[in-house]
Each structure stands twice: as C-alpha cells, then as structure tokens.
Amino acid sequence: MLILRGGRVVDPRSGTEQVGDVAVEGGRVVAVGPSLAHPGATEVDVSGLVVGPGFVDLHSHVHSIAGQRLQALDGVTATLDLEAGLMPVEKAYARAAADGRPLHYGFSASWGDARAAVHLGVTPDADLQASLVMLGDPAWQRTSSPSERAAWLRLLEAELEAGALGIGVLMGYAPRSDPDEFLDVARLAARTGTATFTHVREIVEADPTTPIDGSLEITRAAAETGAAMHHCHVNSTSRRHVDRVLGLLDTARSNGSRVTVEAYPYGAGSTAIGAFFLAPERLAAWGLTPSSLTMVATGERIASVARLAELRAADPGAVCVVAFLDEEDPEDAALLQRSLSFPDSIVASDAMHVEWSDGSTDSREWPLPPGGQTHPRTAGTFARSLRRMVLETGAWSWAEAFRRCSYLPAQVVAGFAPSARGKGWVGAGSDADLVVLDPRTISDSATYVDPTRPSVGVRHLLVDGTFVVRDGALDPEAFPGRPIRASLS
User: Fold this and answer.
1) Domain coverage including residue 81
2) How many structural domains compose the chain?
3) N or C: which end of the chain has fewer CB within 10 A?
C-alpha cells in the first residue's frame, strides 16, 4: 500500500477539498481521510501540495512515448485521440500496447479514414502521418454518393463495435461536403450510445458560402438526433467570433442538447499544411497571411503565397503552426480567457507528436534528444491553464480546475467506456490516476521557440497506482498505461 500523506486533496466530483491522506493499493484509491495508517505502507509526504485526479486529455495526437512523457509532466494520466481517431482501432490499440505507454490511451473511429477507404480505395493503417497527407486530397473532401456514404457508415459502426471511443469527425477538412452526411454520423452515435468529436467546418464569418455554419451544424444535429456531440477546440475554429459561437452552444445546452465543448490556452493551432482552410485563397477569411504559418520540422516561417503553394504540393501532410490570435494583444487574450471560462468548458490540448530533423516522431531517450519540434501545447496545455485560470486570475478554484481538466472529460466517455468511470475523481474506489502538484510553482515552460521544455510543478504522477513522475523526475522505465475502450453491450 502507498499513502500520500498530508496533501490538499481535491475531489472535483463532490467539489470538496480537505487536508488529508490518500491510500492507494492495486491500482485503486482505497481510502481518503485524515491520519490514515497501514502497517508496512510506503508513505510519501505531500504536505503543502495539491493532490487531485490526473488530467484526462480528450484531444491528443501524440501516439508516442516521447509525446506522452511530455504530457505526463503536464499532469496528464490519459491521452485520447477523439477528434481525428485512427483506423483500424484494433491495430491502434495493439500497436500502443506492444510499444508500451506511460499513460492510458484510446482512439475514436476515424470518419476521415473511413471516407478515405471508400473514396480513395486506400487501406488505413492506424497511421496519423498517412492520415495527415490524405487530408489535402480533394477526392477525399467531396460529398459521398449514397452507396459511398452507406459503405463508410458501415466501417464506422464496425469500429465502434471493436471498441472505438465514439466517432472523430474532421469536418473542417471537408467543409463542402453535404451536411446530411453529418446528420447520419450523429444518428449512428445516438443509436450506439456513443458520441461524436468534431473539428467543425467553416463558420459563416469565415465563409458566407459554407453549406452550413460549422457550430450551428453541431447544435442542429444534437437537437435532431439526441446524440452526445463534442465541439473540439472552440477557440481555434471560432477565433475572433468565439462569443457568438459560445452563445449558440449555451442556447443549445439550455434547450436540452447534449453538446460539450473544449478549448486550449494558446493563440496558435497546429495542423497539416495541406488543410483546406490553409489554401492561399482561404487565408484572408481569417485575417491570416502566409507569414502566419510556420513549418514545425524546419522552423520556416512561410514568406509568400508562392512558397505556401510549393509546400502544400510537396508534402501536404507536413505539420505547421498557425497563429490565429495575438496572445500579447489584450483583446485577443480576453477571447482565450472567455473560451476557458465558459461554463463547463473542458481543457484539451490538441497535442501533436514531436518531430526531429531526421523525420522520426518518437524516442525512448529521456531527456528527449535535442532538436525536437512540436507545438508548445503538447508539453504545456494543462499547467498553462492552471497558471492562468487559478494562480493569475483566480477564475477557477482548484476544485473547478480539476473538474474541467479531469472530471468533465472523463464523464464525456464514461457512459460508453466502463474503464473511464473511475477516472477524474478522488475517493474510495476511484482509479489511482493521480497528480500531485506544487501550487506555488505549477507553470508551463514550453514556448514556440523551445516547444519541448517540460512543465514544472508536477511533483508526482501516478498512473494505475504506478509512479510515472516522482519527486519531479520522470521514470523512463514506467509504462503502466492501459487502453480505454468502449463497450456497446
């Protein structure tokens, strides 16, 4: 048995905080309270520190040991790729299990890969890099014929039966496709009792000719089908129109729709350079220029429309950073703050893999080999959110912070993923996925120049009762991560 002694224990499910002890055994919390004792127990003094449930990231594309280690030092205990997903999920889960993972992991059924399988005749291989390349193919983006739609819906249903955590929908990458397709996806989620996780198509402010406003599409589908529907990174898809979008989502929820929403605390996103919305003729709709884009692997800031076109043609799957808000501008910073402050808004990172100059995207070395590039949100999303929302502005209490970073995201999948039901809270019977952090020093360290610098202030991190981080140091031999899968029975 392990006893974490004398910490400030926060349980977001009950909204309570108490100074006390947490006893852990067999991958579970067995007791919480003052002065716990057990003969022979290992004791760790955590007085002056905050103890809470590890963060559950609904939107992480790292798929790697290197990426998960950065997220571990950011307080994350479960990384789920639900916006994009992978296909086939059986291979994705098997590959992660064979490699070993420091953190728990899970995948949605990939709408994009299913459409690519039908439209392009490709065989998905649970490979994010291949999926990123595919996103720029116009043949994938077009509206499906009735027979094609039926075919990829069957593929998605088979993935759900195989344990996929809902359906990941990259609608923003095929924004001219027929909105009826999205309604069919929502109906499938409703019928199977799962959920959709959507990168929405263009909103009307960016493209008045869009078939339907992207955020309105989610609220309409949720109302018509009763499906649980998750709006991914509302800050990056809404940008300077986020107040209008948040108002729309608030109205939908008030009317009984099951719509959840996430945000991250950065004014720049990251995606494949071949994405529909990064075409040269699309940039002006968002007030962007080619210089708003920086290639991750090389650090090149794109200097011209001609260079952008060249890069998109040469390697449409290459990852870039897209600056859509100015974090130093008070008005833009306030928009980010409102996205995070929105009632029940969930923190999710949209973390990307680390990439080195030789093209590799993973490493078992720790510390990481020098020169790795990624978006700083991979290493810093959660610590940055805590620093801004708890320490600097006081917008969240610790209980509220853990509710948004741990409890609410776990609840999004707990209804159809039994192994998620013990996550996101602290009490007898909860999973021993715990973070112990220093409330005086918790902060992100990663920057756009040095994006793999780990966060500071996470003193301990337990995954399934095993220390992945102890006394602030990551254990490179710890691989306790387990799969989180759906069960439709």
Assistant:
1) 54-267+325-421
2) 1
3) C
Which strand (E) or helix (H) includes residue 435? strand 434-437
| Cα 47 to Cα 50, 53, 484, distances in angstroms | 8, 17, 32
* Tens-place pLDDT, residues 288-324: 999 999 999 899 999 999 999 999 999 999 999 999 9
**Residues 184-187: contacts with CB under 8 Å, at least 24 apart:** 184/149, 184/153, 185/111, 185/153, 185/156, 185/221, 186/221, 186/222, 186/224, 186/225, 186/227, 186/229, 187/225, 187/227
Tokens for 150? 């039926």
**C-alpha–C-alpha distance, residues 420 and 435, integer Å:** 16
DSSP letter string, 43-62? EEE-TTSEEEEPEEESBB--
pTM over 0.90: yes
Which tokens hold the place of 30?
């067995």
**Structural domain includes residue 90:** yes
136 — pLDDT class (breaks 50, 70, 90) = confident
pLDDT 10s digits, 176-212:
999 999 999 999 999 999 999 999 999 999 999 999 9
End-to-end CA distance of the chain: 34
CA-to-CA distance for 483 and 419, rounded, in angstroms? 8
Q: Per-residue confidence at 126, pLDDT binned at 50, 70, 90?
A: very high
> What are the tokens at 97?
């299990």
What is the CATH classification number for the domain harbouring 365?
Answer: 3.20.20.140
CA angle (138, 196, 244) in 5-degree steps: 85
Cα 128 to the center of its chain, rounded Å: 14
User: In the chain, what are the helix, strand and coil shares in percent, each to the nearest 5?
Assistant: 35, 20, 40
1 three-state secondary structure:
coil
- Give me the long-range contacts of 428-431 (CB less than 8 A, separation at least 24): 428/29, 428/30, 428/31, 428/32, 429/28, 429/29, 430/28, 430/29, 430/53, 431/27, 431/28, 431/29, 431/464
Tokens of 222: 């949720």
Give me Rg for the CA atoms of the chain. Answer: 21
